[in-house]
Amino acid sequence: MKFPVIRAFKENNSKSKLIWATEKNPSVFFRSLADLGSQYLDEIHEGTSIGSLFKKDKFLPRTHFDTIICTETSILKTLVLKKMKARKFISPAAGFLFSSTRPSENYTKQSGYERFLNLMNLASDKPLLPKFSIPIPKTYLDFAEGRLDKKQLFVGLNPGAGSEDKKWPLDLYVRVAKLLSKHNIVPTFFLGPMERMIKTELEKRIPESIFPEDDYSRQDVTSPLLTVALAQKMAFSLVNDSGGGHLVAAGGKKTITLFNDRRGVKFRSPFCEQVSINGLDFGVRKVRDIPYEPVRIAVNKAIQSVIT
């Protein structure tokens, strides 16, 4: 979700050197999305935790920055970063109390994408106008074109997630898949590494389902961009709030996303028309507890829009 903003910033500020740093977690722009990161990020640093920021062998204390942006709201992290040399310092912590400048919009009520856009706008010479497209290698686009018959309708299903709380029950995904099949729509599953073991079960229960990513993996190394390329061919998709779900949404087609609590506000995708089904809207906190009926209604409405 941050990529369109990064690209827009670099295009508007072509002479700037953009340095990307993560605290503990690895950066996808250095790993699975390195092809994208290398185009617009001049440096990527992982594991720049607070404890290591001021070690002599780290890049941060050796650099004088024009602007430092702390994307987190932690006051401690903000105060540590504020000790570094910079002409401008931007941080949303404590309502931008420590920041050199602040956005005019109500930052706290915005989605994660909108917040990041606002922070980067504060550092930009000109207003940012992100384009909601992702440059995908031709090999993936060609595969998606050849694998998915234009005469058929395909609907994406992403039953995986990083935690059990965020997984809608597989039996309910099967019910949705069967509903799709009744309308001659092909259930198209996108499975992450943690969901490979359920493929055999899904093939038995829904023989007409397909797993197009697996067909490509037998030929070459896969990439998250393959998921985006295939998702562009879906009529719409139903996904959990997960990394895979956000990749499917980046395909630009209508996406029904199941969220814990009311996370749909914060993690709304900028790439597509997104129907957010939040647990708290139905008296539950976890995706695993969201009832079938509201999801069926949303799916059926999407089906009617593509078959009429």
> Averaging pLDDT over every residue, what do you get?
92
- Number-wise, the strands total 9
What is the CATH first-level class name of the largest domain?
A: Alpha Beta
Distance between the termini: 32 Å
**CATH homology-level superfamily of the largest domain:** Glycogen Phosphorylase B
User: Judging by the overall fold, what is the CATH architecture of the largest domain?
Assistant: 3-Layer(aba) Sandwich
Q: What count of domains describes the coordinates?
A: 2
Strand order of the largest sheet: 6-5-7-8-9
Task: Tell me the series of helices and strands, N- to C-terminal.
Answer: HEHEEHEHHHEHEHHHEHEEH
Reported by name, the CATH topology of the largest domain is Rossmann fold
Number of helices: 12
Q: What Rg do the Cα atoms give?
A: 21 Å
Helix content percent band: 25-40%
Beta-strand portion reads: 5-15%
Residue runs with pLDDT of under 50 for 5 or more positions: none
Structural class: alpha/beta
Instruction: Give the overall shape.
Output: globular
> What can be said about the biggest beta sheet?
5 strands, parallel
